[in-house]
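To assess whether ligand presence alters the predicted conformation, the chain was also submitted together with fe (ii) ion. Input:
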Amino acid sequence: MFDIHSHILPEIDDGSKSWEMTLEMCRMAQADGIQHMVATPHANERYPYDRDAHEIRLSELRARFGSGMEFSLGCDFHMSYENLQDLKLHPHRYSIGGNRYLLVEFSNYGIPPQIEDAMMRLGDLGLTPVLTHPERNTVLQQNLSRVLRWAELGCVVQVTGSALTGRWGQRAQQAAHLLLEHQAVHVLSTDAHDTTSRPPILSAARDAAAEICGAEAAQAMVNGNPQAIIQGQPLPYFPKPMMGS
Ligand SMILES: [Fe+2]
């Protein structure tokens, strides 16, 4: 499996607290069947994003972990006005492996039309948005048809694996189920932050998704699709979402 959203780099955001924890997270992921992890540190008001420094840390992780796991660098990109200004100047500073796919995260407090427009216009910068965890966003939970519309327009939708298995409560779980039922989920990711509360485990979510949308689609969400994203390729599984209730 391929995990495109994780906070495995130590001591740079609210993810891993130490190299010991980072290496343990990678071992857990490997034992779960994950072969490639994308480290996606936050870029927001609290955690400034220094691509060069993160690249150096990722190289150190490759050296420390050794063989058996591949790593890439991305960013958990918060859709703020300030971030967007920098993105326009440096479109590939935040994307996965510097390719066309950019993780985007919305605020829980509101999604102004200008920010929504900016997401839909990322194509002008040569970028494809990968919307992270809409099922956990309190604004979107109340208006999931918005997410279906975005998916119809080509936005990639990434759901947190542990939301499907109940870690984020009933509302997030129901939202994740609804998006899956409407064929509007393309990728499942761990969004791992540690080894206990938010561990890098995907297999349970893949199995839960298979119950809802079938084994083949669930497999695409942890394998073919995230692999294509890492490689900067079109997604092999991108069905038209089923609109309506
Ligand atoms: Fe994240």
